[in-house]
Amino acid sequence: MTLQAGENVWIPCEVVSGPFSDERKVWVDVPDGRWGGFVASHLLRENIGAGSTAIAATIMEINELTASARLPGQTPHARFLTCPTSWLQEFAVR
After folding, report:
1. What's the CA gap between 87 and 37, in Å, rounded?
2. In 1-94, alpha helices (H)
3. Of 89, 7, 8, 12, which Cα lies nearest the Cα of 54?
4. Containing structural domain, residue 22
5. Biggest alpha carbon distance in the chain?
6. CB burial class (10 A; 0-12, 13-18, 19+) of residue 36?
7. Does 18 map to a domain?
8. Which of 30, 6, 11 is nearest to 73 (CA)?
9. DSSP type of residue 12
10. Residue 1 forms part of a structural domain
11. What's the mean pLDDT in 2-11?
12. pLDDT for position 73
């Protein structure tokens, strides 16, 4: 799959309940580390309280080596998830 900047994708994640009933704590594990944050439950592919699902993301930049995706929600990390392009192309779902 060849991804392009501006494209919306689902990125696999793990979730647990957040501090509010309509919010989830989310983790995305990529080869270079872990992105974590809090997102509204409607931004997940399945509105689950805990387990595996996917989070909505927008591809911002992509080249041969790295890709950056904008993830919704609140995070102490950079707003963009930056990872190897090969990982994103393998795991992201349109």
Report:
1. 20
2. 85-91
3. 12
4. 8-91
5. 40
6. middle
7. yes
8. 11
9. E
10. no
11. 93
12. 86
Contact 81, 30 (CB under 8 A): yes
Do 62 and 54 contact (CB within 8 A), yes or no? Answer: no
Does the pLDDT of residue 37 top 70, yes or no?
A: yes
Please answer whether residues 85 and 64 qualify as being in contact, where contact means their C-beta atoms are separated by less than 8 angstroms: yes
Measured CA distances, 84 to 56, 74, 94 (Å): 18, 23, 18
How many structural domains comprise the chain? 1
Neighbours of 10 (CB within 10 A): 16
Average pLDDT in the 24-46 region?
92
Q: Which 3 state secondary structure label does DSSP give 43? A: helix
Token pair, residue 23, equals 């919010």
User: Within 10 A of 56 (CB to CB), how many other CB atoms are there?
Assistant: 19
pTM, entire model: 0.88
* Amino acid, res. 52: S
- Report the candidate in 68, 88, 66, 75 with the shortest Cα–Cα distance to residue 43: 75
Is 2 within the bounds of a domain? no
